[in-house]
Amino acid sequence: MLRRWMAWVAGLWAGGVLTLGAVAAPSAFAVLERAQAGRFVARVFAIEAHAGLALAVLLILLARRQAVQQDGSRFSLELGLALGALFCTVAGYFAVQPMMAAARLGQGAWSFAALHGVSLAFFALKGIVLLALAWRATASAARH
Fold first, then answer.
1. Run of H or E residues at 56
2. Contact at 8 Å (CB) between 56 and 86?
3. Is residue 143 part of a domain?
4. 46 falls within a domain
5. Is 110 a domain residue?
6. What's the pLDDT tens digit per position in 15-55?
């Protein structure tokens, strides 16, 4: 049952990440004035980041419990993937976004474009990690 929950939560979060990155953000910039689109996308990514913290904690708890039940271990690849998703959320949003705000004001050593690229890389990596976690949890649930 834990595997199914893990697959469901990881799949839901991965779908949200893919939808935001591939549909919502590009669509906002296609139909809104650039400043409005930027504010909209910033708000949507803020919501995803905060929800992502809660989802990551849930996935970490599920993965840890599954590892202990399965082989008595405290660590598993699924736990590592859940921790990776948490790291990408914290680094990509909570560390890089404040630096991007400062760069918009001409402060800091990095340009806005460079920081945007770093943020995008963390977001893309989070999507890949979540897809891998959903795939592994689904395959594991199907075997048991």
1. helix 34-71
2. yes
3. no
4. yes
5. yes
6. 999 999 999 999 999 999 999 999 999 999 999 999 999 99
Domain presence at residue 112: yes
pLDDT digits (tens, 9 = 90+) for 122-140: 999 999 999 999 999 998 7
Task: Give 69-101 pLDDT, tens digit per residue.
Answer: 887 788 899 999 999 999 999 999 999 999 999
Q: To which H or E segment does residue 99 belong?
A: helix 96-104
CA–CA gap between residue 16 and residue 5 (Å, rounded): 17
Asked if 44 and 17 touch (Cβ cutoff 8 Å), the reply is no
Scored b (16 or more CB within 10 A) or e, 10-41 reads bbebbebbeebbeebbeebeeeeeeeebeebb
